[in-house]
Amino acid sequence: MKIKLILPPQVTDLEEKIDEVMQRAKTHRADSIEISYGSQAGEIKRRILNILMKEEYRTLYSRLVKSKEGWGRIFVYFRWK
Description:
Layout: E1 2-6, H1 14-28, E2 32-36, H2 42-52, H3 55-58, E3 63-66, E4 73-77
Parallel strand pairs: 1-2
Antiparallel strand pairs: 2-4, 3-4
C-alpha cells in the first residue's frame, strides 16, 4: 500500500498533516509514503525533513529518499516487523 500526501505551497498545519499520514501508515502497515510539495518550495522541503528527522517519526521508517527527477517529492519507506 502506498499513501500520498499532496501539500499546497502555503501550509499552516504541516506537522499535523505529517503526523496524520504517519499514523495512517502505521495502522495500515503501508509500504511507503509519497509527500509531494511542489517544485518551488525549498523552505517547505526543509520543514518536512526536520519533522521527519524527529525521533518519534525516525523510529517508524527505514529509509528516506528525496526525488531527483520530478522535483518536489520525498519518499518514506517502511520495513515492518
